[in-house]
Amino acid sequence: MTEEKLPSATAIPTFESAQIEAGRKLFSRPVTFMLGVANLEQLPPENKIEICFAGRSNVGKSSLFNAVTGRKDMARTSNTPGRTQQLNYFDLDGALNIVDLPGYGFAQAPKDIVETWQGVIKQYLRGRVTLRRVFVLIDSRHGFMKADLEMMKMLDESAVSYQIVLTKADKLKKGQMEKRIREVVEGVKKHPAALTKLFATSSEKSTGLEALRAEIAMLL
Questions:
Q1: Locate the EngB-type G domain: which residues (predicted)?
Q2: Contact in structure between 4 and 206 (CB atoms under 8 Å)
């Protein structure tokens, strides 16, 4: 599928053709599910680089994960927010661990269970030496919400490097998208651990996927 282009913005990184190709090659390699982590004792050895995807429930995280990896059902999608309640580990052909974090901000689960696995997430983010980047997904239609800002604050306090990935970019018109990008850029300036370059993506239209893959490949 040909990638649909968004209006140019200085906040969105650009990559050379060789970097785009490196990202394509990386994600053409096999991706396999490793394990689901419900407590820190289950974490795999810290023997390779990790990245993770974080976002509010129903932000489109599973859909983006599937689109980036080029698999239809690698991360289970669901219309029920907060269904995933563990850290799901995926192995990218021995080169990289990709961690799909539980959706935050809302969950169809008892409060004590929600608090337990949210505590696991916080401990993971604060203590994982091999974690190189967290990609925080924000719904383009809504921008930053309270739960997003709480997550970003925690990442700042933990000194964990992170980047914003706007999802569902196809749902906004050109002018609306440019306005949203400007708002997000201004917002991240207040967060010391946030990188200033962001990604605007659409799982349905394949927007921004090449750039996101290239960015991840560069971390290796």
A1: 47-220
A2: yes
